[in-house]
Amino acid sequence: MNTDTSKESSGATEEQKEGAEASNSPDPVVELQGKLQESEKKYLYLYSEFENFRRRNERDRADFLKFGHEGFLRDLLQVVDNFERAVTHAKSAGGEKGSPLAQVCQGVEMIHYQLMETLKSQGVQAVSALGVKFDPAFHEAVGDEASEQEAGTILKEIQKGYTLHGKLLRAARVIVAKN
Asked: Residue 110 domain-assigned?
């Protein structure tokens, strides 16, 4: 009988062991829910990162379209300066109305106007300089002169400055009043 009792006691022990193992091991449903929550967190994180990447990419693309031709426009401003010099020189040379020189002057002025309108349509604007207070964000002082005007007021513009969609393309070179 001892053997039967030992079998029963050993059988009970195995059932107890299985019950203990079942209670010690996590419930498969709880385990899967935990994995699902972890996967959802990873998904939300990656989705958020992707949305940030997409927005940043769109912003960079828009900036490139807006400012991508900045170097070309900066070089083109040298041509604008030369057109302005040509108009100034032709006007100072004078010439009778209808004379060949006056006609050339008028043609150069028309080309200059057309060029400036094209630049304006691309977002290029001239920086105002004469008579305004010196602003280092838009002006470059190349000299100063004694004047009756308030110190820091711009007296002369040596070279025009320009902005591209509000961003400085080239600073205006100016002479500033000093007391």
From this structure: no
